[in-house]
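re the bet — no i am not wrong, look at it urself. input seq straight from the record:
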Amino acid sequence: MLIRLQEIWRDEGGAVTVDWVVLTAGVVGLGALMYFYLEEPIQNIDESTGQALAGVEVQEISFD
């Protein structure tokens, strides 16, 4: 029984899968952190851009 547990412990067949899961979780976590960090500044830029474009008058062009 002890030998069988040692064989299971030494088996590295799923190690690559675990590495990919940890790496993917890290990338997703970093993306979520950046979203929450940049959410407010991006909203401010969006509002400023919207206000600037609201005051722009578009002139009609005629090709007659």
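see?? The CA atoms of residues 16 and 25 lie 14 Å apart. told u. also Helices lie at 2-10, 15-54. so pay up
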